[in-house]
Amino acid sequence: MPSIDIRLDLSPEACLAYYRGRAEQVITLSLDGRRVAFPALALRRIVGRDGVHGRFRLHFSATGKFEDIQPIGQGGP
Predict the structure, then answer these.
(1) Rounded distance between C-alpha atoms, residue 41 and residue 60, angstroms
(2) pLDDT score at 77
(3) CB contact at 8 A, 6 and 28
(4) Which letter, b or e, does each residue of 36-65 get, where b requires 16 or more Cβ atoms within 10 Å of its Cβ?
């Protein structure tokens, strides 16, 4: 399963906008500089009171479909 590592720093307000459906996808840069998009609904698994902050690993199927997001640590890139 291919994976991409990202860093997210989203405020609670930004997460709420995703949660309410104002955006269907989160678009960010991977740690190696690639542009990546994944479903905003995936944030529900990782959001806390302070929003979403840290490094995460996105897992995709062989065909490029998003499958999972997992925290891989906190801190800077």
Answers:
(1) 15
(2) 45
(3) yes
(4) bebebebbeebbeeebbbbbbebebeeeee
